[in-house]
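Pasting as-is:
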Amino acid sequence: MGRSVSAIVGVVKFSGARAFPEEIRPLFLRRVVGGGRPRISCVGPAAFGVLDGAPGPSRDSQNVRLSEDPRVLSVVDGRLDNRHILARELGAKAGVNAASPESAFVAAAFERWGTTFASYLLGDFAVAVWDIASGDLLLSRDAIGVRPLYYACRPKRWLVFGTDIRSVLKYGNEERANDVVMIARYLDLSYVYERERTFFDGVRRVPQGTTLVFDGHGELKSRTGHWKPDLDIRPGVKDGAEYREEFKRLLSEAVASGMTGSRDRIAACVSGGLDSSAVAS
């Protein structure tokens, strides 16, 4: 279940100034196999870009997408596993089908469900959506936090985000002090409970399973958790044999969803442990 490795970056200015590709092009720090070039879209004060790390064709190669309205600018690093379900629920009027890029699904989902759009997405993703009409910027990550997403905000000036923290640190040519609270938590091992702080003052990570909404001035407008485990769920089985069958069904469903849309042969790197061996089998 190999994935292409991509990086996304973006800037939204709250001063009314326009954003240009030259401002975010230097923020792409990774050199990738195949010599991928960043794709950048700019609309007024917003500039979003993606650098695809997969050699050859990839769904991720079209992750910068300006909706045709045009009402939404979206960028995605990741993979959606429920694209067939989304295509059916959103319908042809949304302009998406099972072969559409992830960014098209995200834009259509936002236009359909608003700020709750991420609760309808299943997969590994880091997402940024800019609502052109309202000026709101939404940053969201998948439930487990497989894909990273960092940001720094200067209200009434700008907000920069990226999947690589070095991209965020590079923007604005500002000196970044160390976050001494985070350093202290790292030393006493309590950092494992920290979902947002980083080692740099003023640079934050978007918490996993969370959507942050910033208004047109860069102020945090809302913070919504779009996923949490249901601890009260019961599988409705009676004995050990039924538990085994139910586990096999759920695991097979999860693995199959992760392989959705793959055009390549599948390989697995296993440790010999129970979990990886179960996935491969």
